[in-house]
Amino acid sequence: MIGVLLITHGTLGEALIQCACHVMNRRPVQMLQLGVSSQDDPLDILPLAHQLLQMVDSGEGVLVLTDILGATPANLAAKLLAPGRVEGVAGVNLPMLLRTITYRERGMELLVKKAVAGACEGVVHMKPTA
User: Fold this and answer.
1) Right CATH number for 3-121 from 3.10.420.10, 3.40.50.300, 3.40.50.510, 3.40.50.2000?
2) What is the arithmetic mean of pLDDT over 4-17?
3) pTM over 0.90
């Protein structure tokens, strides 16, 4: 199973994991998060990010999910990437996370595609209900 590491601003990653737990009625295995605060020096927390990455990697790789491309959490995540083994996707939201959990046993290439599709398909203009 592919591991999942969320690297986000503040407590967003843990909040997303808690929401996924609510939807799935269980906490997903091989999933951790690292919340980055404004006081954190990215170089100081890089070793912790590497440690968390190793903790979720069972040998099939890790998908790193982060919030805003170009922001500190994404820049930190980019330092962990190793094509084919550690991949990254920015723009994490709950639909992306749920899709990631669902497809993480089917290979990294498909998982990345499903994660991105889940995020995009989860953004819709709602219409009033009757």
Assistant:
1) 3.40.50.510
2) 98
3) yes
